[in-house]
Each structure stands twice: as structure tokens, then as C-alpha cells.
Specification:
mainly alpha; 160 residues
Length: 160
């Protein structure tokens, strides 16, 4: 085994466990959202999870770890967000199996994304490479917006 293969296995192993932790976060948040009837509290819980994730990852030294780190809090919140923020499209919180399907699809995309950034050398652009809270914040916001759009599309496809 070469060093590159070993590093790849380590990243996939860590991503797998972060994905499992994200499933626990998703389950807990889903259970809480089913009990809370106020839509404003739904939005506050989702926003708190997204902000907490960024607060934890704001000073990461590598954009790949920022992307992988979103699996823990941000993606579970983003998967739950379309049903809360777009109520006329999705009438209620979808069943947990649909939410888990959406989370799995987005998690796989999130695990693959750092490798795409490295292979295409986009991660070496100066603005992304600086690893300042501003550059990390802009990348994080783009991830959140992109994953929100993907989650909305996935729910629309699942409902048909």
C-alpha cells in the first residue's frame, strides 16, 4: 500500500464515522422537530445547527476538512430545511426514510467533493487556499446553498 492509498483509506474511514454521527444528529433533530409544533422554532433549530457547525469549523486549516465536517451538523439540518422553509412545496416533514435517502445522497456528494477539488486543483486557488474565516465562510455558504437546492430537488423527485 502506498502513502496515497493509506491517506485515502483514512479519509474515507473518518468520513464514514462523521456520516454516522450525522445520522445520529439527523435522528435527534428529526425527533425534536416532530414534537415541536411552532414553525419558528423549527427554523431556529435548523439555523442553530448550521451556525454551530460553522463556529466549530471556521478556523480549519484545509477546505477539505471544512467540507467533510459539514456532515456532522450542517447537512442533517439542510436535509430538514426544505420541508420547513418551503411549506407550500412540501406539505409536512417527510417520512424519516425519505429524509435518510436525501441525507445519504448528499453525504456521498459531500465525501466526493474534496477529491474533485483536489483533482481539478480548484482547492489551490489563492482565495480558497488562504484558510481565513472569510474564505471558509464563503465556501461554507456556497455549500449550504448548494446542498439546500440539491435537497429540494431530491424531495421533489422522491415525491413523484
Amino acid at each position: 500500500m502506498t502513502n496515497e492509498e493509506g491517506f485515502l483509506y483514512i479519509i474515507i474511514f473518518i468520513s464514514f464515522f462523521i456520516t454516522l454521527a450525522g445520522c445520529v444528529t439527523l435522528t435527534i433533530t428529526y425527533t425534536i422537530l416532530r414534537q415541536v409544533k411552532n414553525k419558528l422554532f423549527h427554523e431556529a433549530i435548523i439555523l442553530a445547527g448550521i451556525v454551530l457547525n460553522f463556529a466549530i469549523l471556521m478556523n480549519t486549516n484545509d477546505i477539505s476538512w471544512l467540507i467533510i465536517g459539514t456532515l456532522f451538523f450542517a447537512i442533517p439540518m439542510i436535509v430538514l430545511a426544505p420541508s420547513v422553509l418551503i411549506p407550500d412545496r412540501l406539505q409536512a416533514i417527510p417520512s424519516f426514510s425519505r429524509i435518510l435517502i436525501c441525507y445519504t445522497i448528499i453525504a456521498v456528494l459531500d465525501i466526493i467533493l474534496p477529491f474533485i477539488l483536489i483533482v481539478t486543483e480548484i482547492s489551490m486557488i489563492s482565495f480558497i487556499y488562504w484558510h481565513t474565516p472569510l474564505s471558509n465562510g464563503l465556501v461554507y455558504i456556497c455549500l449550504i446553498i448548494g446542498y439546500f437546492g440539491i435537497a429540494t430537488v431530491i424531495y421533489q423527485l422522491i415525491d413523484k
